[in-house]
Each structure stands twice: as structure tokens, then as C-alpha cells.
Write the C-alpha cells for this entry.
Amino acid sequence: MEALRLCRNKLREHEPTRMRLIATEACRAASNGEGFIARVERELGLKLEIVDRQTEASLAVTGCADLIEESSAGALMFDIGGGSSELAWLDFRGGRPRRTGRMAASIRSWQSLPVGVVSIAEKFGGVDVTTESFEAMVAFVAGHLRQFRGREKLRQMIADHPVHLIGTSGTVTTLAGLHLGLERYERQKVDGLWMKREEIDATMSALLGMTFDRRVAHPCIGKDRADLVLPGCAIFEAIRREWPTERVRVADRGLREGILISLIDADRAERAGRSGRG
């Protein structure tokens, strides 16, 4: 509530003409999610909207759309969260949307996995991670990936056409920071970075070899993510093994940018409608 109060104060200060305030998996899953939303409106005057998983996936795609390579026939976007992870397969073989705000129209299949960095860490542990426990995490996530609609067709598309992965999450951006050897995290160097398969392999291997204390001390990880980064890597690794591509694009963007782009798109459409009416 205190964090939301700060947000409310910022909104009052800046007076946006259009906004959208969303809640995701924590409020979807919590037994008191609706009650919490009601309390926020009652005490702070903020109207939060609990979005469904498909809306969350669509917004994440919209936020990352301009990082999808122009020459690609499609892409698999994944967003590794705390309690769930979203996957969206974009297929451009029938044509690619001209506007970024319409990119979600190309989603051929999507899935929300009930696994995230927190839930995996709670199930398997994230402090002392061995090669064996890491592989157990990967196998657990792989079991959920088998439910993805169009799983085999996506694999065939990757074999026959230029397709790449695009990842938006703290896990992927942390790996990028480690790969670049950054002394501190720098978004402008990470967002949009391409990582080759062998570079990801090497970075994951180095991370798996770190002690918990070394992860805590690393400037691109820190104490808040030290026990979550390897569970996140296990989710990433399961996705890579299921749908192997030569390159992955790193996105330090997602839902917030997707909301912003969709609001801008709606604003343009409204203005065009007004001008069309004369």
C-alpha cells in the first residue's frame, strides 16, 4: 500500500491524460486478490485492473515488438515472471503488422506456464544449486512446455525459416549483463543485445559455478536476485532446449512499454476518428 501511495502521488503530480493500471499473477492467484484491489481503490483512489494471462502476453509482445528482427518469419517471445511465465509464438508468414501496436495480432499460440522464478526457487531451492538440482528444475519446466499448443509446428518452423527467441525478464537481462562483463547493470547496453547460443551456454555455466555469496556480491545480480537467478535460468534453458535457435534477443522492456504503446495507439485511433468525422 505504501508503494502504491507513492505511485498515486506521482500520478497526481504529473496528471496523465490517459493511463492504465494493471495487476498480474500475484493478484490473479491470491485468494484475496479482488479484496486487495477494492482496498486500493477505497484507500488510494487507484482503479487497478486484474488482467488475464492472454492480455498480459499480448501487452508483453507489444512492448517488445520493435526488437523482433525485420527479416524473421516469426519469433518466440518469453517473459519469465515470479509466479508464472508467458510464451507467445508470433508467425509472420501470412504478413507482418505494419504498426507496433498491432503486433499481438500475429500471435499464433500462447501459453502461461504456472512456473516462475519464485515458485521454482520455493520448490527446488535457489541458494545452493547443483548441476543435478538445476537439471531437475529444467525437467520440471519441460513437462509444462509439452502442453504448448503448436509445439511441434513451431519446432518445424524454426527448422525451415529464420526464427529467433526474444526474452524479457530479469533472468535474461542478468545473463546479458554477465556476458558483457558489466561492473554495474546498464540498460542501454543490455536492451536489444543479441546473444548467440554458445555465449548463453558459457554464461549459464559460469553462473552455475558461482557460490551463493559470489552471486550476492555480483553487481548485475545482488542479494535480491541471488537465489532467483538460477531458477530463472532453468526456465530459460527448458525453453531453449524445446525450441533451439541460434540467437536470442534480450529485451529490458515488457508490460509497461506494452501498455504505453497500446495507449498511444488508442489515442491515435481516437484522433483519426475525430478528424474523419470532420
Remarks:
- The chain has two domains: 2-51, 54-258.
